[in-house]
Design brief:
The protein is of the alpha/beta class. The chain has a single domain, classed as Vaccinia Virus protein VP39 (Rossmann fold, 3-Layer(aba) Sandwich), CATH 3.40.50.150. Helices cover 35% and strands 23% of the residues. The protein is built from 11 helices and 16 strands.
Length: 297
Amino acid sequence: MGLANILRNLLAHPLNRDHKSEALQRYIKWQLASRLLDLPVIVDFVNESRFVLSRGMSGISGNFYSGMHDFVEMSFLMHLLRPGDVFVDVGANVGSYTVLAGAAVGCRCHAIEPSQVSFEHLLDNIYINRITNNVIAHNVAAGAEEGVLQFSTSLGLTNHVIQGDQSNLSTTQISVKTVDGLVGTDVPTAMKIDVEGYETAVICGSQALLANSTLLALVIEFNDSGRRYGFDEGALHNLLTEEYGFRVVQYDGFSRVLREHGSNDHDRNNRIYARDLSAVQSRVESSPAFSLGEREI
């Protein structure tokens, strides 16, 4: 993504619209500091949680620039979840969502991340937030069945399962487990899935969990990457809505209003799926505010 697009997205972020100069200052500050010092720093996050920020972490750096990189999805989960709930983070990467759920809310978490490099950063974030007793970290890939797969190692945040001939990429062999097998009876209230197109396989390995009414919401990345594996994201959407009763919803983190989205088409890469919408709306309305610097939301 070019600099112009980065800055455009930064200034259009919901938490930066009235604080554009501060957002630009944070962006410039980190761009300079990361190049001059090239050392990790610890950054304040939500509700006294923290995260480790290092050069090249383009995903988690958005939390530094904007407060919450995925504001819609993150604010939804912050308002939905309660201390003691279970949260499953599939494709946890370095742990933004795990830290929010485990440290900022107080949930019990399963964090699933196949990349060894990202997993080590995930463990750092679990450690500095003192949530080792709250989080079970799994250094495996989630899939439709147990086995082994090839996984890319040179694509940073977009490392993914390799199928077919991609001999130009460096890869490693990883273990694959099902979410049902990893979680067992520890059924979550919410689950996030961000696995660079492998979402359909993850869902196929989560059938028992999806059938349990305790699971109220899913946050899933849809960016058409599933085609590389022969997956149809439209079919996945139909499975979630017709078989399991989920609905795509829009959420306003400021007003806490939840609205059903009436179409499979969606204007965001991340989709929020919820069921029992009245129960979900009641939860988000009654949640205590979370603190983000000097702001409460």
